[in-house]
Amino acid sequence: xxxxxxxxxxxxxxxxxxxxxxxxxxxxxxxxxxxxxxxxxxxxxxxxxxxxxxxxxxxxxxxxxxxxxxxxxxxxxxxxxxxxxxxxxxxxxxxxxxxxxxxxxxxxxxxxxxxxxxxxxxxxxxxxxxxxxxxxxxxxxxxxxxxxxxxxxxxxxxxxxxxxxxxxxxxxxxxxxxxxxxxxxxxxxxxxxxxxxxxxxxxxxxxxxxxxxxxxxxxxxxxxxxxxxxxxxxxxxxxxxxxxxxxxxxxxxxxxxxxxxxxxxxxxxxxxxxxxxxxxxxxxxxxxxxxxxxxxxxxxxxxxxxxxxxxxxxxxxxxxxxxxxxxxxxxxxxxxxxxxxxxxxxxxxxxxxxxxxxxxxxxxxxxxxxxxxxxxxxx
Amino acid sequence: xxxxxxxxxxxxxxxxxxxxxxxxxxxxxxxxxxxxxxxxxxxxxxxxxxxxxxxxxxxxxxxxxxxxxxxxxxxxxxxxxxxxxxxxxxxxxxxxxxxxxxxxxxxxxxxxxxxxxxxxxxxxxxxxxxxxxxxxxxxxxxxxxxxxxxxxxxxxxxxxxxxxxxxxxxxxxxxxxxxxxxxxxxxxxxxxxxxxxxxxxxxxxxxxxxxxxxxxxxxxxxxxxxxxxxxxxxxxxxxxxxxxxxxxxxxxxxxxxxxxxxx
Lengths: 379, 263
Ligand SMILES: Nc1ncnc2c1ncn2[C@@H]1O[C@H](COP(=O)(O)OP(=O)(O)OP(=O)(O)O)[C@@H](O)[C@H]1O
Ligand SMILES: [Mg+2]
Description:
The structure holds two protein chains of two kinds.
Chain A: H1 2-35, H2 41-66, H3 75-88, E1 89-90, E2 95-96, H4 99-121, H5 126-146, H6 148-151, E3 164-165, E4 168-169, H7 173-195, H8 198-208, H9 210-214, H10 220-246, H11 256-269, H12 274-303, H13 309-317, H14 319-337, H15 349-352, H16 357-378
Antiparallel strand pairs in A: 1-2, 3-4
Helix pairs in contact in A: 1-2, 1-7, 2-7, 2-10, 2-11, 2-12, 3-4, 3-5, 3-10, 4-10, 7-10, 8-10, 11-12, 12-14
Chain B: E1 4-15, E2 18-29, E3 33-37, H1 44-52, E4 59-64, E5 67-68, H2 74-80, E6 82-84, H3 97-103, H4 113-118, H5 121-139, H6 159-171, E7 177-181, H7 189-204, E8 209-212, H8 216-222, E9 225-230, E10 233-238, H9 240-245, H10 247-262
Helix pairs in contact in B: 3-6, 7-8
The complex binds adenosine-5'-triphosphate and magnesium ion.
C-alpha cells in the first residue's frame, strides 16, 4: 500500500520536475541560439526583459498571491533598486562601486523602504491598502523625477557601467540573460522554501482568514511586513540588474502601469503559485511581441507583402498602445474562462468557482439547524 | 482554589450604550466542561472575545491560572494557552486539512526566516515533529480525517468535518483552555451526538473546555456545569438540570408570559 502511494506520488511529481528541467534547458540554450543566428537579437532582448518581469512577478506573488494584499505600488521598489545602481555605478555622481556591494545595497534599501511604507499602510485593509500603495508608488516616481541633484530628473541617468562579477564583465544581452536567470533560480528556490514553511503557511492563513490566523498565534502586522519587505528586496534586486542591463534609466520606466502589469502577471499565472507567476510573466511579456511579429512579419511573409497593411503600420508605429490592448484582452479572457490562473495553486481553485452546490446546501442546513436548536432549547 | 484555570472577574464590555457583558464573573476549573448558554445577543460570544483577546474589558479582569490576560492580543492569549473556535466557522479554506492544523501550531514553533529560507536541518526536524503531532490530532476524530484527506483543501470537507477541523486546529495550540463557540451549530442530531462524544473524550484526555451551546442535548450530555446569561449578566450557574429549570433562565428564554405558563 505504502509502495503504491509512493509510486503514485512519484508519477504525479515527475511531470513537475520534467517541466522545470525543460524550462531550464530551454532558458540555458536560448542565448546560444542567438549567438549562432538561429534567432534574432530581438528575441534575446525580449527574453532578458521577460526575466526581469519574472523576478518582479515572483516577488509580488509573495504579497499579492501568498498573503493576499493588493499592492499597487510595487514598481517603487524596482525603482529604488534601479536608482541605486544608476547612482553608484555611472558618471552621474562619479561613483563606480562594486557590483556585489551595489546589489546588496539595492536590496537593503528597497527592503528598508518597504518596511517604512509597510509599517503604516499594512494596518489598512483591502481597497485602502491598494489606494495607499498606489499613491506611494507614484510619490516615489515623482520624487525621483524631481530630485534633480541625484537623479537628473526626467533626463535620467545615462552611461551606467557594465557590472563586473569577479572579473566577468557582463555587457552583452546573452550575458545579462544568464545573470538574470541565475537570479531567478536563486530567488525562486529561496521563496519556494519559505512558501513551504511555517512562515509561508502563516501568510496563506492571513490571506484566508486574518482573525483565525491571529488566534492561531500569527502576528498579522509582523507577518505582512515580512512579506512586503522580502518582496521589496526581490524588486530591488530586479531593478538593480535592470539598470545595469538598460545602461540608462529615467522615471518613465517606473510608471504606475508597470505595477499594474506585474499584478496582471501574478493574477494571470495564478495567485499563490510560483510556477504560475513565472508563466504569467512569460506569457504576458512575450505575447504582444509575438502578435506584432505575426502581423507585421510572419503572416505578410507567408501570404504576400500586402497583408492587412493598416494593421501592419498600426502595429509598427503605435505598438505600445496595442500592447496594452492585448494585455487587457488577455486579462478579460482569463477572468472569463480561467479565473484561477494558468497554473494555479492546486488548492486555490474552489475559491473562484463559487457555484459549489454543497456550500449553499450547507448554509441552508446551518440556518435550519440553528432554528431547530433554539426550538429544542425552548421545548 | 488552586485548580482554577480561568477566572473572569467582574468583566464589563460596552458597545456604545449597550452593555454586552455586564459585571460578569465566573471560574473554570481544570478538567471541567462548562457550557455558557443564553438567548441570542446575550453576550456569550462577547465573553469569548474578552477572554481570547479580541476586546479588552472596560473594567474587571480575566485571569488564566492566576495571571491577568486582559488586554493581551489574540496571539499572546494563544501563547498563554487559550485556543478557540468560532461561531461562524473560520477555516483556511484554500489550504489543506494538514496545513490548517499546522497553522494552529504556528505560535508553538520557532523556525525563523533564515531557517525557513534554507530549510535548515533544525527547521526540517521541527516540521517533521509538527506533522506527526498534526496526524495524531487528526486521528482523534476517528474516520473523519483519513490520510487521504490530509492534502485535500479544507473547503472540500463536509460542513460537520469543517467544524471538526476547526476544533483540531484549536487543539494544535496545546491549549490549557479550549473555547468552543457553538461546536455543533448546523449539524444534524447524529453528528451533534458524535461531536458531543468527542468533546467528552477531550475531557477524558485532560482538556478543560468552555463552550457556548444552544443544543440542549449536548449541553445536558457533555457539561459538568452550566452558566446562563442574559443581557450580559449571569443569571444562573450550576449543574445542567438545575440551571435549565431555574425560573430566571426559563424566563430569559421564553419571556415573562412563558415563565408564567411554565410555572
Ligand atoms: N463589535 C460589536 N459592536 C457592537 N455591538 C456588538 C459587537 N459585538 C456584539 N455586539 C452586541 O452585543 C450583544 C451581545 O452579542 P454576542 O455576539 O456576544 O451575543 P451571543 O450571546 O453570542 O449571541 P448568539 O447566540 O446570537 O451568538 C448583541 O446585542 C450584539 O449585537
Ligand atoms: Mg454568539
